[in-house]
User: Fold this.
Amino acid sequence: MSAQTAWAVVALCAVVTAFIKGVGPFALGGRELPPWFGGVVVLLAPALLAALVVTQALADGDRLAVGADTAGVAAAGLVLWRGASILVAVAVAAVVTAAARAAGV
Assistant:
């Protein structure tokens, strides 16, 4: 793929993304959304974050892999579940991941 083609694809993606983002407010106008829709929208961000964390923790290229990063994410999830702050969870994840990599996992 040439550089011109790549930039054309990037520009087209930017235009399509802007169009998609603009259609929602334009189509809905000032109308109220149904209550059930608000409940669904509130759940979208945590679901997307969970999907991103799982794919980063369990994927290695195009295959499923469990390794040091998976252990770090699991440890962070455990300390968050026990009520620790996000900073503590990040520190625990970093220490566990580093220890697992040093151990050769």
